[in-house]
Design a protein that fits this description.
Elements (H helix, E strand, L loop, with lengths): L1 H12 L41 E9 L20 H6 L2 E6 L2 E2 L14 E2 L2 H8 L4 E3 L9 H15 L3 E2 L1 E2 L2 H4 L3 E5 L2 E9 L7 H4 L7 E2 L5 H12 L4 E7 L10 H13 L3 E5 L7 E4 L2 E4 L4 E3 L9 E10 L2 E13 L2 E4 L2 H13 L12
Parallel strand pairs: 1-2, 1-15, 2-5, 3-4, 5-6, 9-11, 11-12, 12-14
Antiparallel strand pairs: 1-16, 7-10, 8-9, 13-14, 16-17, 17-18
Helix pairs in contact: 7-8
């Protein structure tokens, strides 16, 4: 409990700093880009690079706006409910956007569930304090090529930082670069989960748009190595695992090792609809499953969720805290008191089957 109190205190005192686009400039706490300092008529003034400070990263799980959640987009400023205050207090927050951003398109064939939402979903994320999202998942192209075109137009129009999707492979695997309190972050998104009959249609290539696929290990390793250049920390956001399986699959564990060897500092993701364990691997931080987050059909064990808070100093995660929550009415609500203590203890127990350690040593 003491460690939680220390981190909570750090969060409360931290100013929110992030950037709005991939330009690497600093963003103000209110979400606007801080303008660069103009030089004198004789030439531009030199700017000192900002001093690096420890930062708090917040990660939430799978998010969509289906069912009863769709109506909340009529007022996107409050669409994520009370969990937004936790996301806003972090220096950088990210979730997985598990839906196509379109009101048209053609539903993907032979899928039991297809998700879509209007572009106000990006407004909802931004207003909730989310700084970036990944659309590389098994619902990101639920409305096929037409939905992909709409999604890409919405990303461009809103300027919301979105990884794992693009007009071609270069764009889909491209890292989003942002400077937060002097820390140069590079974020990549990719999916290891795709329906077999849709792999070809959904995977971005040199010739067509789509999603970044972690099934292409060569391309993934190259993407991480590219992101490593000019960055202080590399974050890889993955869609991976098996639904309702509380332990990581061997392919997840192997991929995590390969990406860390390539230069990743943090590897996080989801898909299983339940939280999986998190911890340290070769001195870097891995979380195998964030669970559902904003999810209309969550119930029973799939309603267990939370926010993962990581304190990042340079390339090192020096503190990790799971703030447990429970999804009610599709929205995550933080647990308190004995319920929070019990769920935190259960979450820490999930590490037992991961091969991860509780400390970076």
């Amino acid at each position: 409990m003491r460690s939680k109190m220390v981190l909570a205190s750090a969060l409360a005192g931290a100013a929110l700093v992030a950037t709005s686009c991939g330009s690497g400039g600093e963003k103000s706490a209110r979400g606007g880009t801080v303008p660069s300092t103009s030089g004198s008529p004789a030439g531009p003034a030199k700017r000192r690079p900002p001093a690096k400070q420890p930062i708090i990263l917040a990660f939430g799980g799978d998010t969509h706006f289906e069912g009863t959640l769709r109506s909340r987009l009529a007022n996107p400023a409050t669409a994520l409910g009370p969990i937004a205050s936790t996301l806003r207090r972090a220096d950088f927050s990210m979730v997985n956007l598990e839906t196509a951003i379109t009101t048209g398109g053609t539903p993907a064939p032979a899928k039991d569930f297809t998700f879509r939402a209007p572009a106000t979903a990006f407004t909802a994320l931004r207003d909730a304090g989310v700084d970036a999202t990944s659309m590389a998942n098994n619902h990101g192209m639920d409305y096929m090529e037409g939905g992909l075109s709409d999604s890409l137009r919405a990303i461009k129009r809103t300027g919301f930082p979105t990884v794992g999707i693009g007009r071609n492979a270069d764009e889909a695997y491209k890292p989003y670069r942002v400077t937060v309190k002097g820390n140069r972050l590079a974020i990549i998104g990719a999916t290891q989960v795709l329906d077999d009959h849709l792999i070809s249609a959904w995977t971005a290539t040199d010739a067509k748009g789509g999603l970044a696929s972690a099934k292409d290990l060569t391309r993934m390793v190259a993407a991480v190595r590219e992101a490593r250049q000019g960055s202080d920390a590399v974050i890889v956001h993955l869609h991976w695992g098996q639904e309702l399986k509380a332990c990581p699959l061997p392919r997840q564990q192997e991929l995590a090792k390969q990406l860390i060897d390539a230069g990743a500092d943090i590897v996080v993701g989801g898909h299983a609809h339940i939280p999986l364990g998190g911890g340290y691997l070769r001195g870097r931080y891995v979380d195998y499953g964030m669970g559902n987050f904003v999810f209309s059909t969550a119930h029973g064990q799939t309603a267990n969720t939370g926010v993962l808070l990581l304190r990042l100093q340079g390339r090192r995660v020096t503190k990790a805290v799971w703030k447990p929550a429970r999804i009610s009415g599709g929205l995550p609500r933080l647990l308190t008191g004995s319920a929070a203590v019990a769920e935190s203890r259960r979450w820490n127990g999930l590490r037992a089957c991961t091969g991860l350690s509780a400390t970076p040593a």
